[in-house]
């Protein structure tokens, strides 16, 4: 009796219900990962995520080998490759985690049809890549929640499934083989300070954060320079950490830090249930009627200044440079840079979202597109017209300017608060800095944004 476990966005052995179920049902299993050509064709594996994925696969393979098994990697059309492996292994069961994007749903459906036509059974496991699957909690009169707070109230009352222990032994049929594992070193164009991927790195991060970090999370998570958020996001994206396990641990731990982390994990599920109900929101405005006036502006010079971190607004430039250098950006910085592009520069949010998706190692359709919409005011924010002021925000969340000075060396010698508004420096001091003037005056940006709104009314 042989089963295939298809790994997708769940590249771990801890708390892995599909693997558990396969091991319970079968003597041997084939742990399979398919590098789906459709993902590459859609441009969804840019260098940072491809490099991180290589780490994840290498780590998963090593952990399976420690248990007597190995990872089988194939490339091509996912459905065709799975069917090929299933027939080579003569497997009767295939286990995988549920995905929640339109792409994942279509792929799963094709796979189900192909396998069932061949007399095999596909088991799709819920609550592997999310803590609470879309559709589990719904409001009385709609198919999904459009507002976070009532969603969270219900979400937080749910009892989650127990955590599945990692397997002790995995035996893989010898004749089923794969291709060589991709290597991180073979990927070009990767951010120089990209985080290490893989379940090993994830578990080390988890242990370290629990020991030192979580307690202060609630107080310091908006402090840009302190950088005290968990950085679990790429691990959650690739599934090297389990959201169910994290919620269990945090609830057990208790306290303001753990509670705040649980709330953020609920945001992740919240956006997934929006996207599952409205798959089109990945591309088009979630609130199309109300916000048909939202910008479709494509201003090349403004966009380039934003993308390269040369807008003349230090906190924006620091954040945009961090994004390229690390493939990651602090949440507060994501809010500021997104608001700056979509509102102050009044550029189409989708242009910014695409730039983020290219660079972010945690780049994720649900989290990225829906957070962008939230900030742009086209999404689920209940105050869609607020505009974040990058100077006020910088003074609040980077009070002594350390974040700016870390990423914008041109301003390394400037103290706070001038470091957040270098245009206010005296003539000669300002002239000595090799740093651009603001691309737009904040009041002019605000005026353009408000005019557009008025015109639409
Ligand atoms: P922590 O603060 O430690 O939070 C723990 C976890 O909670 C995160 O890892 C994440 O999984 C989840 N989380 C936290 N905040 C949010 C949120 N607002 N929405 C959904 N989940 C959240 N997150 C991504 O994972 N991928 C993206 O592509 C992405 N794009 C974003 C784009 C914009 C414009 C904005 C404003 C936010 C975006 N986020 C995205 C959400 C958030 O910024 C990141 O999840 C967070 O900064 C990751 O750092 P962390 O793991 O240290 O977060």
UniProtKB/TrEMBL annotation:
Q: Which UniProt keywords apply?
A: Chromophore, FAD, Flavoprotein, Lyase
Give one GO biological process term.
Answer: nucleobase-containing compound metabolic process
Calcium found in the keyword field: no
The coenzyme or cofactor needed here is:
FAD
Binding sites annotated in the UniProt record for FAD: 217, 229-233, 362-364
User: What range(s) does the Photolyase/cryptochrome alpha/beta domain occupy?
Assistant: 1-130
Top-level taxon of origin: Bacteria
Give the GO molecular function terms. Answer: deoxyribodipyrimidine photo-lyase activity; DNA binding; FAD binding
* Positions marked as site (Electron transfer via tryptophanyl radical): 293, 349, 372
The record's listing under Pfam families reads: DNA_photolyase, FAD_binding_7
Record text on cofactor binding: Binds 1 FAD per subunit.
What the record says about family reads:
Belongs to the DNA photolyase family.
Q: Which PANTHER family has this protein been placed in?
A: CRYPTOCHROME (PTHR11455), CRYPTOCHROME CIRCADIAN CLOCK 5 ISOFORM X1 (PTHR11455:SF9)
- In Swiss-Prot or TrEMBL terms, this protein is called Deoxyribodipyrimidine photo-lyase
What is the protein's species of origin?
Streptomyces lasalocidi (Streptomyces lasaliensis)
């Amino acid at each position: 009796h042989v089963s295939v476990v298809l790994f997708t966005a769940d590249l771990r052995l801890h708390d892995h219900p599909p693997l558990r179920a396969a091991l319970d049902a079968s003597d041997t299993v084939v742990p399979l990962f398919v590098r789906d050509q459709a993902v590459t064709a859609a441009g969804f594996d840019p260098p940072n995520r491809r490099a991180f994925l290589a780490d994840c696969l290498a780590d998963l393979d090593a952990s399976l080998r420690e248990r007597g098994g190995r990872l089988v990697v194939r490339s091509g059309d996912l459905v065709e490759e799975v069917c090929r492996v299933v027939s080579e292994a003569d497997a009767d069961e295939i286990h995988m985690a549920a995905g929640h994007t339109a792409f994942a749903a279509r792929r799963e459906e094709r796979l189900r049809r192909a396998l069932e036509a061949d007399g095999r059974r596909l088991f799709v496991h819920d609550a592997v890549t999310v803590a609470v699957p879309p559709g589990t909690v719904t409001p009385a009169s709609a198919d999904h929640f459009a507002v976070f707070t009532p969603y969270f109230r219900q979400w937080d009352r749910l009892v989650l499934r127990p955590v599945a222990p990692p397997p002790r032994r995995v035996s893989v049929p010898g004749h089923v083989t794969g291709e060589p594992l991709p290597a991180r070193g073979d990927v070009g164009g990767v951010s120089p300070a990209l985080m290490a991927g893989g379940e090993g790195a994830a578990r080390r991060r988890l242990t370290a954060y629990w020991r030192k970090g979580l307690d202060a999370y609630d107080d310091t998570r908006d402090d840009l320079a302190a950088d005290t958020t968990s950085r679990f996001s790429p691990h959650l994206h690739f599934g090297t950490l389990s959201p169910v396990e994290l919620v269990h641990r945090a609830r057990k731990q208790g306290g303001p830090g753990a509670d705040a982390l649980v709330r953020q994990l609920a945001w992740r599920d919240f956006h997934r249930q929006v996207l599952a109900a409205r798959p089109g929101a990945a591309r088009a405005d979630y609130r199309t009627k109300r916000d048909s006036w939202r910008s479709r502006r494509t201003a090349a010079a403004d966009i380039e200044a934003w993308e390269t971190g040369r807008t003349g607004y230090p906190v924006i430039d620091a954040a945009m440079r961090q994004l390229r250098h690390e493939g990651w950006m602090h949440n507060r910085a994501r809010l500021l840079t997104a608001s700056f592009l979509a509102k102050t520069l009044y550029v189409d949010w989708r242009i910014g979202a695409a730039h983020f998706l290219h660079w972010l190692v945690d780049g994720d359709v649900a989290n990225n597109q829906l957070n962008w919409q939230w900030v742009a005011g086209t999404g689920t924010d209940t105050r869609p017209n607020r505009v974040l002021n990058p100077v006020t925000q910088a003074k609040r969340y980077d009070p002594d300017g350390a974040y700016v000075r870390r990423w914008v060396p041109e301003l390394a010698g400037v103290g706070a608060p001038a470091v957040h508004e270098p245009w206010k420096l005296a003539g000669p001091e300002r002239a000595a800095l090799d740093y651009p003037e603001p691309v737009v005056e904040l009041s002019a940006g605000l005026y353009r944004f408000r005019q557009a709104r008025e015109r639409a009314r």
